[in-house]
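Hi, here's the filled form for the chain we discussed.

Project: internal
Contact: R.S.
Residues: 456
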Amino acid sequence: MARDTLDATPISSRDELVAWMEKGNKPQSAFRIGTEHEKIPFTLSRHEPVPYEGPKGIRALLEGMRMLLGWEPIMEGETIIGLADVTGGGAISLEPGGQFELSGAPLCTIHETCSELNAHLAQVREVATPLGIGFLGIGMSPKWSRSETPVMPKGRYKIMSAYMPKVGTLGLDMMFRTCTVQVNLDFSSEADMVKKMRVGLALQPIATALFANSPFTEGKPNGFLSFRSEIWRDTDNDRSGMLPFAFEDGFGFERYVDYALDVPMYFVKRGDAYVDVAGSSFRDLLAGRNAMLPGETATLSDWVNHLSTIFPEVRLKRFLEMRGADAGPWAKLCALPAFWVGLLYDQESLDAAWELVKDWTPEERQKLRDDVPRLALAAPFRNGTARDLARRALALAEAGLKRRARLDRQGRDETRFLEPLEEAVLTGRSPAELLLEHYHTDWNGSVEPAFTALAY
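And the returned structure, exactly as it came back:
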């Protein structure tokens, strides 16, 4: 999230929260695609992490991007922590360890998304290269320890860093060492949201398998193909996971609001200050019972910011966020929105995807999610594998994109962006397995070549 919301509109009831979420409903003609991707900055000379301060640090990079783009700076006190395109809706932000994130503008087609990504990467290179900075397209930093990773000067991250070790063993790794690509998609009604949420949750492990790209930690194989995904299994189980209640009868906006009300909070923002309320519930704040904020009740910004600190495999706000994929090279960045748009924005494909997953048990969904980080497309499922499921899901996505028939200037539809995923299904090998093959052969047991092979 590029910027925490500041909206002092008072919120006094659960019904207001449900009504706020329902306002995300929009006609299909207004559906948009918002793609977010993170990348790891490194020094071109020695493949070291890039600090925030200094003449060739992250601050200098942000200032250079500000001059190039003319975007509005996002400030925390006197510190620049991001940039916002107030016209188009895009933004650049910093993750805790300096991961550089583009939150893309809401766009109509995958063609536009890929053009946006192309332009962004070219702009970043223009500013970063003279500073001696490169960027790595991978799901987890392959070389540095947690202690070697810089800490970005954002108030919310200080609070999160103190809280994470209390609720899991890998939360700090999630914050400081992982990278993702995700797509944000719309819904037309509560029923539409529910079906998309359920399909998205059930098939999120398939996206994880197709995009698995984090096999290294501190210079060596870590035993996983998507260690980024494994990290989420022991980050904070109160705010992550497969949300089995989403498949229960009666699930809708109200049930998700009830869930979010009881997810422990991290902070509230008052002016420029972050107030540490970690571990307390939004339900108590709503009722004016938060011990750390005596006499205060919730505001709209408290709610919006709180929703941004909940991390299930699919996150609901006024849109749905597909969160299961590791970051990767440019072609994979475009493939992720193509996969989900093809499945969820075409009614025939969405209905068929629901038919595919609707009889899966909670235990089957969870086991698939637990197996995929280590096995990717080889993860077992019933009488087959995740690869078999990926083949079926990819066929539905391709058919959905064909029916969308959104053409570029050369008359090509959006199915071409699925090609990297078709290759993975054809071979049965995730990106991580290809990296491991290089590591054990021509890379001679070193991750250093990854900084060339995976650089943007």
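Let me know if anything looks off before we file it.
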